[in-house]
Amino acid sequence: MNRTYSVNCVFVVQDFVAVRVQDPRVQNEGSWNSYVDYKIFLHTNSRAFTAKTSCVRRRYSEFVWLRKMMQKNAGLAPVPELPGKSFFFFNNDNFLESRRKGLQLFLQKVLHTTVCLSDSQLHLFLQTQLPIGHIQDCVQGLTPYTVTDAILTYASSNRGFAQAQEEESTLKCDGEVLEMGVM
Q1: Start and end of every PX domain (predicted)?
Q2: Using CA atoms, how far apart are residues 113 and 33, in angstroms rounded to an integer?
Q3: How many other CB atoms are found less than 10 A from the CB of residue 67?
């Protein structure tokens, strides 16, 4: 007796967002206006994001601004804390590594906080290299481009770099697991 079976398969692809803060660099070293910036690499399949990969550099003061703006927009909902500020130790490797880990943890928590994830400023911060003033103008509709336009323009101009970073991060993780969270 010949039997035929029908099998229905349903594949559910869960959204993920992976973020890595890496490569702290001292800019204007030896100058009174030196500062450290960090590379932020984002990889996601979430529909919440316009670009699926991005790579930008941001300094600590920009993170402070971002948190302040997200807290303002979040109302009573708590926004994750940033690692502390230091005026004296930014050339110390241990301090830089501690801050890098703190900034990465901050972004991981932010990306799992719904009220923060819906903030356009966060998306522009992570997916464009726009200065803070331009981010504010864009969100307020004071630019000739929309938030989506800004992200797509940056993504297309930065595509080769972001793809190279994605390939590098899958091949070489420096012994660290890239945090992927299910949304």
Answers
A1: 16-132
A2: 34
A3: 17
| Max intra-chain CA distance, the chain | 87
Percentages (nearest 5) of helix, strand, coil residues in the chain: 40, 15, 40
Nearest-angstrom CA–CA distance, 151 and 128: 6
Alpha helix stretches (DSSP H) within 111-158: 114-117, 120-127, 132-139, 147-157
Which one, of 66, 67, 68, 62, lies nearest residue 37 by Cα? 62
Q: Measure the CA–CA gap between 124 and 112, rounded to whole angstroms.
A: 17
SS3 14: coil
Q: Which residues pair with 21 in a beta bridge?
A: 40
Cβ 39 vs Cβ 55: under 8 Å:
yes
Residue 173 has, within 13 A of its CA and on its CB side, a CA count of 9
What are the pLDDT digits (tens) for 74-101?
888 899 999 987 766 656 888 899 999 9
The 10 Å Cβ neighbour count of residue 20 is 23
Structure tokens given for 122: 């966060």
Query: Which one-letter amino acid corresponds to residue 141?
Result: G
